[in-house]
Amino acid sequence: MTSEHSWHVVAGFGAHIKSTGTTLSILYKGEQKEFPLPSVRHLLLVGGHNIHTSAVTRLLRQGSSISFFDADGTPVGMLNPFGSDAGSEIREAQRTHMPHTFARVIVQTTLKSRLLAIERTENQLGETLFYKGEQEILHNILSELENLITMDELRRVHKLAGDMYFEIMARSLPPELGFRRRTNQPHQDPVNAMLSLGYAMLFGNVIVSVIGAYLDPDHGLLREGERSLVTDLIDPLKTTMVDAAVFSIARAGLINGRYEVSTKRCHLNEEVIDALIAALRASINQEIIDDNVLSLSQAVMEEGPFFLAYQISGIQNDSVLQSR
């Protein structure tokens, strides 16, 4: 467990936020929580809430920032103290830091999480999912990562391992669902549709933490482009925070007769969506997300190793490489 982060998230609707000279008070669904005001360096409001101007003034006066997001985690705007450029130092360090070491951790941890997910599924079903040679290929990729010296090589094996993972996991599902591999939107099968919904929820959780740590969400480690850092950071978390819930629902037959495939896309009915969202709220672990983001922010500032954790059956697993 890394040290405590300094951003605080208020998500949902209807919270009442106020402060005294020393304390930030949040009343939400009848529960009152209080935090020492100096400990809140970045307040992140997701959804619709009521905040007193006194709380805004005191936070800004002490040098803290306040960020606003739509309910799905889409960034809307940020308030910073007058004349300040909050987070400029860490973003500059992020942009100038060589990404290869960080990218290798992402590829390594993602592959480990996927191998464990396949193993866990095999144990649950009592059958082998690998075809001949596939397991060896994935383990060879894992063992050879230290020898890959270019970003293109890392991206290539990351995509190869990801494609293989979904094709292998597809064998655990009823064939009539039509899921063979991960596809681009619009999806023509319910499993891909559920995966995309789950990844969107996970994306929203991660981008809030990334902005809370003042990192640039558009400056990726493995990828490039808009929101690339967020996409990088969700990769190791997908198997346990999204895939496990989706594949479990699919294998249990809970989507049978509860979706329609048109000429354009697959439509999930509200019953499936509600069941999936409930499962995802239980499986998306914000503590692990915050720890991973904090680890990255410390690593780019040369204050510690880059550490990525994920969760399998309630057991926290991790991959660590010293940033250098």
TrEMBL record:
EC assignment: 3.1.-.-
Alphabetic keyword roster: Antiviral defense, DNA-binding, Endonuclease, Hydrolase, Magnesium, Manganese, Metal-binding, Nuclease
Cofactor needs: Mg(2+); Mn(2+)
GO MF: DNA binding; endonuclease activity; hydrolase activity; metal ion binding
GO terms (BP aspect): defense response to virus; maintenance of CRISPR repeat elements
Binding-site residues, Mn(2+): 235
Gene3D superfamilies: CRISPR-associated endonuclease Cas1, C-terminal domain, CRISPR-associated endonuclease Cas1, N-terminal domain
InterPro entries membership: Cas1, CRISPR-assoc_Cas1, CRISPR-assoc_Cas1_C, CRISPR-assoc_Cas1_N
Biological role: CRISPR (clustered regularly interspaced short palindromic repeat), is an adaptive immune system that provides protection against mobile genetic elements (viruses, transposable elements and conjugative plasmids). CRISPR clusters contain spacers, sequences complementary to antecedent mobile elements, and target invading nucleic acids. CRISPR clusters are transcribed and processed into CRISPR RNA (crRNA). Acts as a dsDNA endonuclease. Involved in the integration of spacer DNA into the CRISPR cassette.
Oligomer and partners: Homodimer, forms a heterotetramer with a Cas2 homodimer.
Similarity field: Belongs to the CRISPR-associated endonuclease Cas1 family.
Stated name of the protein: CRISPR-associated endonuclease Cas1
Source species: Methanogenium marinum
Gene from which the chain derives: cas1
